[in-house]
Amino acid sequence: TGKMEAIQKELVIQAADIPVAGFSYSKSSEYAPSIVNFENTSELVKSYKWDFGDEFSGNMNMSSDESPVHLYEHPGNYIVTLRARPKGLKLSIVFSDTLRIKDQFEPPKAGFIIENNNAYAPGTIIFTNKSTNATEFSWNFGDPDSEGKNKSEEINPSHTYYRPGKYKVILIVGNKDQNDKGVFTETVNILKIPDQ
């Protein structure tokens, strides 16, 4: 016919799949001894080499299982390393994460900071809890004139002081798994607005 026809074709270019090493974990307990189940989330790899960072476990510190289980008998911070070898490659890709196992007998420790001390009356004071290993909190704001609002069991409470003065705030913390208590005190200073 002597005519040229245009032909359209769709060209799809796909990015090459990239091998990835990774894992997540779950602990039977936050405290030693704890059994940790590792869930391998690696992609496009064929072999695995685990280092649990646990020098106490001897030859049990290493594993080539895909998703291994490890017993941590002692408290501490453990750096867990997974070396995964991709298909068709001799080099390994590495993923690490830090695992913390707490001491069974680590007592609760109370602590807090006053975000806006030296406020003018009436002033609402904000408390930020810095306690560790605690699950139960009992606050006394040292302000008996506030009646039912003088106490709180919130983690990070606030309290409004209507009169100038110094108020001794007491935080007592506990842990539902232990009998130990921790105590911390700090003084709130409420100022009088200067006369105009």
Describe the structure in brief.
The chain is an all-beta fold. Helix content is 0%, strand content 45%.
Key features of this structure:
196 residues; mainly beta; Immunoglobulin-like; 2 domains; five-stranded mixed beta sheet; four-stranded antiparallel beta sheet; elongated
Description:
The chain has a five-stranded mixed beta sheet, with no helix packed on it. The chain is mostly beta strands and 196 residues long. Helices cover 0% and strands 45% of the residues. It folds into two domains: 23-101, Immunoglobulins (Immunoglobulin-like), CATH 2.60.40; 112-191, Immunoglobulins (Immunoglobulin-like, Sandwich), CATH 2.60.40. The radius of gyration is 29 Å and the shape is elongated. The chain contains no helices and 15 strands. A hairpin with a 6-residue loop joins strand 14 (165-174) and strand 15 (181-191).
Mind sketching the topology for me?
Layout: E1 23-27, E2 34-40, E3 45-51, E4 62-63, E5 69-72, E6 76-86, E7 93-101, E8 112-114, E9 119-120, E10 123-129, E11 136-140, E12 151-152, E13 158-161, E14 165-174, E15 181-191
Parallel strand pairs: 9-15
Antiparallel strand pairs: 1-2, 2-5, 3-4, 3-6, 6-7, 8-10, 10-13, 11-12, 11-14, 14-15
